[in-house]
Hints:
The structure holds 2 protein chains of 2 kinds.
Chain A: H1 14-18, E1 34-40, E2 46-52, H2 54-57, E3 62-67, H3 68-73, E4 100-101, E5 107-113, H4 116-125, E6 127-132, E7 158-165, H5 167-175, E8 179-190, E9 199-205, E10 210-215, H6 220-231, E11 239-242, H7 259-270, E12 274-277, H8 280-284, E13 290-301, E14 307-319, E15 346-355, H9 369-387, H10 391-398, E16 407-408, E17 414-415, H11 420-431, H12 433-445, E18 449-458, H13 466-472, E19 480-486, E20 492-496, H14 505-517, E21 524-527, H15 545-572, E22 579-582, E23 587-590, E24 593-599, H16 600-609, E25 622-627, E26 636-645, E27 652-662, H17 669-688, E28 720-724, H18 741-758, H19 772-783
Parallel strand pairs in A: 1-12, 10-11, 14-15, 20-21, 27-28
Antiparallel strand pairs in A: 1-5, 2-4, 2-6, 3-5, 7-15, 8-13, 9-10, 9-12, 13-14, 16-17, 18-26, 19-20, 19-25, 22-23, 23-24, 26-27
Helix pairs in contact in A: 9-10, 9-18, 11-12, 14-15, 17-18
Chain B: E1 2-7, E2 10-15, H1 22-29, E3 48-51, E4 54-57, E5 70-72, H2 84-91, H3 101-114, H4 120-126, H5 138-151
Parallel strand pairs in B: 1-5
Antiparallel strand pairs in B: 1-2, 3-4, 3-5
Helix pairs in contact in B: 2-5, 3-5
Amino acid sequence: xxxxxxxxxxxxxxxxxxxxxxxxxxxxxxxxxxxxxxxxxxxxxxxxxxxxxxxxxxxxxxxxxxxxxxxxxxxxxxxxxxxxxxxxxxxxxxxxxxxxxxxxxxxxxxxxxxxxxxxxxxxxxxxxxxxxxxxxxxxxxxxxxxxxxxxxxxxxxxxxxxxxxxxxxxxxxxxxxxxxxxxxxxxxxxxxxxxxxxxxxxxxxxxxxxxxxxxxxxxxxxxxxxxxxxxxxxxxxxxxxxxxxxxxxxxxxxxxxxxxxxxxxxxxxxxxxxxxxxxxxxxxxxxxxxxxxxxxxxxxxxxxxxxxxxxxxxxxxxxxxxxxxxxxxxxxxxxxxxxxxxxxxxxxxxxxxxxxxxxxxxxxxxxxxxxxxxxxxxxxxxxxxxxxxxxxxxxxxxxxxxxxxxxxxxxxxxxxxxxxxxxxxxxxxxxxxxxxxxxxxxxxxxxxxxxxxxxxxxxxxxxxxxxxxxxxxxxxxxxxxxxxxxxxxxxxxxxxxxxxxxxxxxxxxxxxxxxxxxxxxxxxxxxxxxxxxxxxxxxxxxxxxxxxxxxxxxxxxxxxxxxxxxxxxxxxxxxxxxxxxxxxxxxxxxxxxxxxxxxxxxxxxxxxxxxxxxxxxxxxxxxxxxxxxxxxxxxxxxxxxxxxxxxxxxxxxxxxxxxxxxxxxxxxxxxxxxxxxxxxxxxxxxxxxxxxxxxxxxxxxxxxxxxxxxxxxxxxxxxxxxxxxxxxxxxxxxxxxxxxxxxxxxxxxxxxxxxxxxxxxxxxxxxxxxxxxxxxxxxxxxxxxxx
Amino acid sequence: xxxxxxxxxxxxxxxxxxxxxxxxxxxxxxxxxxxxxxxxxxxxxxxxxxxxxxxxxxxxxxxxxxxxxxxxxxxxxxxxxxxxxxxxxxxxxxxxxxxxxxxxxxxxxxxxxxxxxxxxxxxxxxxxxxxxxxxxxxxxxxxxxxxxxxxxxxx
Lengths: 787, 155
């Protein structure tokens, strides 16, 4: 029965989605429900001199209008930042503002009404007297003298400065370098754009004094913790959070949002269930956004191509407020991975966290690690061009050898396992790299702009060992809880604190659990996303679900098997040392006497009848594990792309894309490949099209899907994928993260390919997105002899 | 205003505000919540349904414009068993979070019904009005290719 692990099983959760039966928050209707809409600021920075809601309140169907003063009167609604780097200057964040708005979309008031249409009408009828103020825009500019101040008490708009690395070794590397490559780059602002906009529904039970909140979260238990402790003044054990089917997250559904306070607060105030569903344009100006670094980077090399040092100085735009783990992203998730796949002795990085009058920035698929990978892989590519080396050859020269794992980098991390040479060999073979280069030469001879780009990246996935979290500023640990409940009838419920919003846990976790016992997958069900059932958990982000969440389930399964063995030994009158759990047959038997056995079902039943248990054994068959990861896992990749640029339009077409990843052991190849494919498309999106654009006044210019250029089906060729496998040695499944590798690697791969195509024109760098107009202008500039 | 229309073979007569969008009517008045709303500028295609035999984005249609129309939503696609397109999406792992899926499937069904010998390029171009953030489209394209074969009666 065992060995479901490793099989491409089509997903158990799919039939409901395929038939329009997905349980998304926006689909929930409760009796006597009221609808909430949010009055949002049209200004990036303004003082509020007054709010007149009388016209709104007088409208038919309007139940109430509340402002920040109502929230203040109840003394709730302060949202904390959960990642406190040293000397953090943490600006106040309230669910509704009082006197000032600090970004377009900032929250001024809420309306409760009988229908969503009326609520929207009433929002329009609220008159706010704004006194516009100059806006601080641009991470670097906002730190300059005379820049508008976003928050009092955050001087120069700099809320933290963080550094890591051996500065002395770093300086020595650059002092003794034969070559130094320098690059100023921008990693642009992105808007996550999960297809399901955020939504929340709350129901207050005045009889039991319990609040139920349905919310589109990647981590409902974590949010309940924060709400119970800080924001809502309803104790944690009286709060139930449910995140049912969630339509994508990509990091933007990690944070604790103001609406998660406002909806339940309003529900209690008006004594009715309340629903709020964001419009897409509302999501664009209120979901946390991603990336946005301004970076000065440099790389030190010897004549033979040996990399000896890398350094960054980065201004990270945090937006107008500090979201829940925001300071983590450009610090410990960024500078720690600057070693990439390479042996580099002299690494040093420094980050300035900068407040601006823009939407808040927090984790977005990859979160800090894509920014690091982009810096490294751009520098290495530029170095290859400078030294006249093939970019593959330069990378191979510097790879950490397979026999040096675990490998301690100079920037805190200890890589668990890897065979980077093997990974390269596989990717070069699948791509037929030599031929790509020959074809490119031919195309160039014909005057065509064809480029071949590569990028080899690492991710530290599966956050975070709790002690590491504590040392780096996290206010919590990042274990995961997993319960296995074997019912008296022999059916199994697995309960995880991880949350699936597309990742397919209902399938992969069931594969894993069924194999722990040898039972049929039909007899195993996974529960997640409801804090009434999932007593504890930290959620899904950072490619942690399987390596951390499923590991907890494996450990609980081990405990169950041990108990079953004790019970079987007792029933079979054998010594416990003489019995074996057989995962082929789902039974415990006595060594040497396979006919003396007890089936999984018999033992489950016996555990619950309690008629005959060994001395001291409690009835029942349920175990919980809090699994604290020993380390991150370190998936790695080499991607190779071939692009051609239309000289007349600047349009990039991707002709081939080869993605080879080592994500350790694979539970379900179909799902793993799906994660890579989706990740690659998202990374390509950043390279070529996507950009969250603010003008100098702080207006979000790309606030709808008309203006924000999402990847579409007609922009991709069939992506070729392959894998190498070096299992992670420190989790029971040997898995590494897969959710973010594609995104991390695709961005530099495509940018390197485009710049390789443009190299004959003498163009060595352009900032993303590499849109057709930008490339066209660069080509024209070169052809006209300009710069 | 009174409207009378057919959805998934059932007749409905309802009073609606003239400004009611068809997608809101389906979701909030008929409780057919399989049709999702992913944007507010008719870009994402999550709300795609069939209206009088054509794929339309139901966020761009007023309910009163659909008076007398014959509509089909994702809930009406399976006929006792999954439609070949639904089955192909399942087999090819053409969905992850599932939010764009109903609209994507409704678009794909019409794309195949209206086209012959669709090339990969035709399919990619035909789905250009539906946005998926999760899959990178590749397995969706494969699903449509597989379903097209099945729907043409081939093997």
